[in-house]
Amino acid sequence: MNTAAPRDSRISHILALLLLWAVGTACAQSVGSTVSQSPLANYAALFDTLVGQNFEAGRSICDQLARDFPGHPAVEYGYASVIYAYLCDAEDTTGAARLEEHVAHCLDACEAWERRNPDSARSQREYYVGAALSVSGLTMNRTGEKIRGIRRLMSSRDHFDRCIELDPNFYDAFMGRGAYRYAAAQSMGMFSWLPFVPSKKQGWSDLTIAVEQSSFSRYAAMSAMVWILIDEARYAEANDMIEQGLARFPSARTVLLPKLSLEKKTGRWGAAFGTAQELLRQFLSLPNQNGYEIVGLYRTLMDCCDHLGRTEQAVAYAHEGLRVPLTTYARERRTETLRTLEERVFRAEAKQ
Q: Are 299 and 280 in contact, with CB atoms under 8 Å apart?
């Protein structure tokens, strides 16, 4: 709905938020008890694991779906969703090839379904194809295949359109279409006079429908909308949405990251310091980190301390940030952050 942008610039990533939200009561159930007789009925339980970054639980739900619905496109899109949610959380591309395999299997399954029974659940097939193409396009953007990625995202929009035409009450498809419309309007503003370019108003309207009426995309739509509100400096509305998220998911990084962004933009440096510390604690506890988020949080902590008058602590955080091991991918994307940390250390040493 973006793609190598920092966390505070999420409009280019909004389509990705099809994937997310929440730990809730579904996670308290066993995997077997969350699987019903309809694959789509289980997407709420699946996405309920992803906002809390419970990727193993998400894979377990997909494994159960695979046993109950072998060969169904919902299974393959589910696996692709888990991988993409991980890529978003880790700010990495590891696993992209495996994601594309699941997307290909999903598209093949939809084609086979159409050949067997072209009139059966057409709106669902259009949704699966649109959703699979969406995560594929976003992944291609992340891995540098931007032209192919854009084509897939545009194609995904067409499938969401057809899904809604076939079933105007398939409200979860409004999430995908709304995210695309808003992102396209954001990136193609100079061409807004052309008839095929959607408007931000259209995108916002679709996302609102998803929040109010969708079966499993409500919190994904809210998560997209909160970044839009922050980007547009509608801070009071953004804060209301964040408070709703915190009430249900108090430790989820998908809530804490926009919370941190809002605190920084509104100059609440004491609150931002506490949020950044919690996020740093979480990321430091995770295995296989590429360092991208960690070095960014050290830079945020440095900024907080400078604004709070804690000069020595700010310099200490700058040093910590420069010591973070980074993969080549993360280092290339954190060039400006690393330069800022180095300059902060240089200024401190120059005063000695």
A: no
Per the structure, the complete domain to which residue 329 belongs is given by 267-350
- Same structural domain for residues 273 and 229? no
Q: Are residue 192 and residue 329 in the same domain, yes or no?
A: no
- Asked if residue 260 belongs to a domain, the reply is no
d(CA 277, CA 260): 10
Assess whether 227 and 285 both reside in one domain.
no
Tell me the pLDDT band of 188, cut-offs 50, 70 and 90. low
pLDDT digits (tens, 9 = 90+) for 44-79: 888 778 877 889 999 999 999 999 999 999 999 999
Instruction: Single out the residue of 295, 286, 287, 289 nearest to residue 323, CA to CA.
Output: 295
- What are the DSSP calls for 283-346, one per residue? HHTSSS--SHHHHHHHHHHHHHHHHTT-HHHHHHHHHHHHTS---HHHHHHTHHHHHHHHHHHH
Q: Are 292 and 195 contained in the same domain? A: no
- DSSP states along 80-140: HHHHHHHHHHHT--TTHHHHHHHHHHHHHHHHHHHHH-TTSSHHHHHHHHHHHHHHHHHHH
Neighbours of 188 (CB within 10 A): 13
Q: Which pTM does this prediction carry?
A: 0.82
Query: Looking at the 3D structure of the chain, how many domains does it have?
Result: 2
Answer whether residue 248 is part of any domain: no
- Rounded distance between C-alpha atoms, residue 178 and residue 158, angstroms: 12
Which amino acid, residue 99? L
- Among 214, 233, 252, give the residue marking a domain's end: 233
Query: Is the residue at 1 inside a domain?
Result: no
